[in-house]
Amino acid sequence: MKTFLFRSMVGIFFGAFLAILMTFAVIWFGDVQTLSGNAFIRNSLGSMFCGWFFSVTPLYFEMTGLKLWQQTLLHFITVSLLYFIISFGIGWIPFQLTTSLLSILSFLLIYFFIWIGFYLYFRSESRKLNEELNQLP
Q1: Strands (DSSP E) found in the chain
Q2: What is the model's pLDDT at position 32?
Q3: Full-prediction pTM beyond 0.85?
Q4: How far, in whole angstroms, is CA 8 from its chain's centroid?
Q5: Which of 7, 90, 107, 109 is most open to solvent, judged by the fewest CB atoms within 10 Å of its CB?
């Protein structure tokens, strides 16, 4: 529970930080001089919620009773559903077929590459630890 609460706070704060950075980027680099309060609140809450579930859902991978494919499937389904509900609901992704399909494809590719990266990293760490254990007297 302590880990869940810590990751929740970190995720929410990181999401809030990203929301502020995106607001600055839209105002400085976009054609927008001001943002409406409703848009800022909606986007900030969406970003904070995304930060929360992206930081909490990796806890699936710490559930030792599940196999890796089960952990991955649970994580993927949870993250995908929550992200796309928020993205379509807030308006980050417009309700257009081409845009929706490109967004889903981009999400799948990014998820795949991040998953492969973490898998290879932890496999390498596991090998290093096993080698160190084998060298013990």
Answers
A1: none
A2: 80
A3: no
A4: 12
A5: 109
Report residue 120 as tokens.
């290879």
How many helices (H) and strands (E) in the chain? 4, 0
Q: Can you read off the two tokens belonging to residue 52?
A: 């929360």
Tens digit of pLDDT at every position of the chain (137 positions) = 899 999 999 999 999 999 999 988 888 888 887 788 898 999 999 999 999 999 999 999 999 999 999 999 999 999 999 999 999 999 999 999 999 999 999 999 999 999 999 999 999 999 999 999 998 87
Query: How many CB atoms are closer than 10 A to CB 7?
Result: 17
Distance of CA 41 to the CA centre of its chain: 20
CB 35 within 8 A of CB 27: yes
Tokens representing 118?
A: 């973490």
Angstrom CA distances, 99 to 37, 48, 61, 79, stand at 26, 24, 31, 19
Contact 29, 23 (CB under 8 A): no
3-state secondary structure of 135: coil
How many of the other CB atoms lie within 10 Å of CB of 28? 8
